[in-house]
Predict the structure.
Amino acid sequence: MLYISNQCQIPENEIRFEAIRAQGAGGQNVNKVSTAIHLRFDIQNSSLPEIYKTKLLALSDQRISKDGIIIIKAQRFRSQEKNREDALNRLRALIVKSMARQKNRKPTQPSKNAKRKRMDNKTKHSKLKGLRGRVKREE
């Protein structure tokens, strides 16, 4: 059972794990043992509340496929058990992140000093560019 909050949990049978070989350097252990974990979680067919499902599907995250399946690859650790825990923690973090509300942005105006500095920089840059033109000869 994966506990998301007091009211929300995911049964283990809804999460699929697949052991695969980890990528990268690592010597004999990496070449022989399948320590990395692929976690697959189908959002649509899960027992999550509807609000969780809609928020997760609305996320623009590369780990969520078009079919609504979350795929997490965990290969940070050398043991399969730790990678499994890591994948579950990342799934939990993704679901919690999807439910977080963003703060409303309060639009602000630039200060008078900031406007003045901007205009001064523009005029200074304009004069500098004006000096780059062709030099006129006086005879």
Q: What stands out?
A: The chain has four helices and five strands. The mean pLDDT is 86. The longest strand covers residues 36-42.
